[in-house]
Every structure is written in C-alpha cells, then in structure tokens.
Design brief:
Blueprint (H helix, E strand, L loop, with lengths): L1 H14 L2 H21 L6 H8 L3 H7 L3 H24 L5 H18 L1 H11 L5 H24 L8 H22 L4 H16 L2 H7 L1
Helix pairs in contact: 2-3, 2-5, 2-7, 5-6, 5-8, 6-8, 6-9, 6-10, 8-9, 9-10
C-alpha cells in the first residue's frame, strides 16, 4: 500500500501544472519555516494550512501526511546542498581545491539555510527520519570520495585510507558548522576557514603543505 501511494504521488507530481508546482513549493517552504520555528511535533497540518490560508484539501492533494511532507523537505534540502557543491567545484581541476571549495560551500549553504539545518539536525534524532539522514550522509561520502582518491593519486595528500579521510573531512565540516554557526551564531566564514585549515593541514603531505602555506 505504501509503495502504491508513492507511485500515485509520483504520478500526480508529474501531472502538476506550473501553478500546481508553485503551490507545492509554497507548501514545502512555508512548512519548513514553521517546523524550524515551532518544532515538527507541535506543528499540525491545520497550523500549516491556516498559516497559508488554504483548505486541508489543498494539503492532501500534494501530500498524504505531515510525515511525507517532512520527508520531502529533507530530501529536497539534501539534494539542493549536493547541487550547490557540484556547481562550486565543477570547473576546478585541482582535487585539493575541490575539497576546499566543497567545505566552504557546505558551510555557507548551512548558514544560508539555517532553518533547514535545524530540521536536518532534528531528523538525526528521530527514528523515522534518521535512515533518510544516513542515506544522505552515505551519498555525501560517495560524492567526496573520488576527490580524496584523486588527491592521494596526485601525491597531494598522504596515502591513508581514502574512506577514513573522507569521513573525517565531512565529520569535521558538519561538526564545526553545527557548533560555530548553528549553536554559536558565529559567521559562516569563521567555521569554513576553521574546517578548511584543519582538514587540509591534516591531510596534505608535508611537501605539499609547505608549498601551499
């Protein structure tokens, strides 16, 4: 039944007019802001539709439930972050510079979209949403791993396990963004610079570190 519902939803999404797509996006954006401000559990479908000034029928045309809506918000947020990262490194031939730019882009995105950052952090703690976050993290590792491997192959990074290095880079970036930006309300540039400095000086070979300092 759940699989059938998702198929029906996918078919409805494909048939949406431009106006329907705008309404769906409006629901997503308004709900994300409300969830971040009020909290997922206290926010009801009634709160959402009343805030938008529409009927519940409009909500249920696009989403089967509040949970499905929230899942879509998380999926879209992770997808948009990945898109921003890909665009930032698209024309950079140096793998280490790609890693640096990826770190800076990630921190800046999380700062610009703090309400989504709040929701992603909340989702980690919820059993029903945590698997979705883990999937996103696994994808982030898969995206970053080729750049780390390229850096090692080029002799720019020490020859450690590339998977461990990748996990370390992503872990440091996420942690510093959360502690410095989300919780500490410090400028994104501070967190990005700290993450870049720590990750690069922690992974570059000694000869490369001297040339790039």
């Amino acid at each position: 039944m759940a699989l059938l519902s998702r198929r029906i939803q996918a078919e409805v999404t494909r048939r949406l007019t431009a106006r329907g797509q705008r309404r769906q996006q409006q629901l997503l954006e308004f709900s994300a802001a409300m969830f971040a401000t009020k909290g997922y559990h206290p926010t009801s479908v009634t709160d959402i539709v009343d805030g938008l000034g529409v009927g519940k029928g409009v909500f249920y045309w696009y989403f089967e439930s509040k949970e499905e809506l929230f899942r879509q918000i998380l999926i879209d947020a992770q997808r948009d972050l990945r898109r921003s990262q890909r665009q930032a490194i698209a024309d950079e031939p140096d793998p280490v510079r790609r890693i640096e730019q990826g770190i800076r882009t990630s921190v800046n995105w999380l700062d610009t979209h703090r309400h989504l950052f709040v929701l992603l952090e909340f989702a980690r703690t919820e059993e029903r949403f945590a698997p979705l976050i883990r999937q996103g993290e696994e994808q982030a590792v898969a995206d970053a791993l080729p750049h780390v491997k390229a850096g090692i192959a080029a002799g720019l990074m020490r020859r450690d396990d590339p998977l461990v290095l990748t996990q370390g880079i992503l872990g440091v970036t996420d942690h510093l963004a959360r502690v410095l930006v989300l919780e500490g309300n410090r400028p994104a540039e501070d967190a990005a610079e700290a993450a870049v400095s720590f990750c690069l000086y922690g992974i570059l070979s000694p000869s490369t570190a001297g040339r790039r300092s």
